[in-house]
């Protein structure tokens, strides 16, 4: 039924001459219908902004509404999050077959929660599902009023939660460092192949089955949002390339980050990088020393050489070690 509805909407968007009364002066371009995806969608741009449209029929709010509120919370919590998501999605979209991308790589939602999981794993962001369960538990959302699309939906967290997070020493880590951390985390070893990423408690667990190439225990999509991924090796190869290039970027390679239209989200270090783009110095040796991340391999991750450091799975050394939060954040930055 949703596919049939989307087909009708797609035809209307293509041929209906009365669309102006619905959309006003907003301009729709790049219209396409992706019927082969696990969740069929209509893709288009409105005034240059990319939009994915899907359909669902239910009497109560679907869990996807709560998932959107959950992701909005991380956008509100950390200014770097929007830039990270946008860059990662765009990078992976440029890899592989453009006509079959939705089958080769995890979808946008899966990539977003994989980013959240990695940032949680290293203590960059908290697990908001645990700390704000009343707000983000789909079982506790009973009516459409609970997901009313307004200010509370786009900015669900209280000011104190946001302020406390932004005072953490880890907030000094740059976007480039976090991109490198994400690329290292999922491209090294057999992490994607042999483990499941649990979004409920933030753990990395041994795989119980092999029915999916990438396995995620999600709060909102209980059937594994990465189930359509054809091969984890596509993802690992793309992220390995990202990791290599972030260490030695060509001139203007990171220009895309500077063009993301969220200037209020731009950390000071990226504003400073504008000078490198303008003066063509991004291959200069000083760039490497100024922006080289402290995360090169799992063995060099923060806390890795600390005797108090603990792994989430002592029986499997391939799982990257998780920070012991008894160690101060100031030590985290120094490493």
From TrEMBL:
Q: Which Gene3D superfamilies match?
A: 1.10.1410.10
What Gene Ontology biological process does one annotation of this record name?
RNA 3'-end processing
Ranges of Basic and acidic residues compositional bias? Answer: 324-335
What are the start and end residues of every segment in region (Disordered)? 306-335
Matching SUPFAM superfamilies: Nucleotidyltransferase (SSF81301), PAP/OAS1 substrate-binding domain (SSF81631)
Record's compositionally biased regions (Polar residues): 306-316
What highest taxon heads this organism's lineage? Answer: Eukaryota
Molecular function terms from GO = RNA uridylyltransferase activity
Tell me what this protein is called: Protein CBG13152
């Amino acid at each position: 039924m949703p596919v049939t509805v989307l087909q009708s909407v797609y035809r209307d968007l293509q041929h209906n001459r009365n669309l102006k009364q619905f959309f006003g002066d907003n301009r729709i371009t790049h219209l396409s219908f992706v019927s082969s995806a696990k969740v069929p969608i209509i893709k288009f741009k409105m005034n240059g902004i990319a939009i994915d449209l899907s359909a669902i029929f239910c009497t109560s709010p679907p869990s996807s509404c709560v998932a959107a509120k959950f992701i909005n919370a991380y956008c509100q919590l950390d200014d770097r999050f929007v830039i990270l998501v946008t860059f990662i999605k765009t990078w992976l979209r440029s890899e592989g077959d453009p006509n079959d991308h939705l089958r080769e790589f995890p979808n946008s939602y899966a990539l977003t929660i994989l980013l959240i999981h990695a940032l949680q794993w290293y203590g960059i962001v908290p697990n908001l599902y645990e700390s704000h369960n009343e707000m983000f538990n789909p079982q506790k959302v009973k009516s459409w009023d609970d997901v009313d699309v307004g200010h509370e939906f786009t900015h669900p967290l209280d000011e104190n939660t946001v302020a406390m997070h932004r005072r953490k020493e880890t907030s000094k880590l740059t976007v480039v460092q976090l991109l490198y951390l994400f690329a290292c985390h999922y491209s090294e070893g057999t992490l994607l192949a042999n483990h499941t990423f649990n979004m409920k408690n933030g753990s990395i667990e041994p795989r119980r089955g092999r029915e999916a190439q990438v396995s995620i225990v999600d709060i909102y999509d209980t059937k594994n949002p990465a189930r359509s991924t054809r091969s984890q090796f596509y993802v690992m190869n793309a992220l390995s390339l990202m990791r290599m290039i972030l260490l030695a970027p060509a001139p203007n390679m990171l220009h895309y980050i500077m063009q993301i239209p969220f200037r209020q989200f731009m950390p000071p270090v990226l504003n400073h990088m504008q000078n490198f783009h303008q003066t063509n110095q991004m291959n200069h040796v000083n760039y490497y020393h100024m922006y080289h991340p402290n995360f090169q391999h799992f063995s060099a991750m923060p806390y890795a050489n600390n005797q108090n450091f603990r792994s989430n799975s002592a029986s499997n050394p391939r799982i990257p070690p998780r920070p012991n939060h008894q160690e101060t954040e100031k030590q985290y930055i120094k490493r």
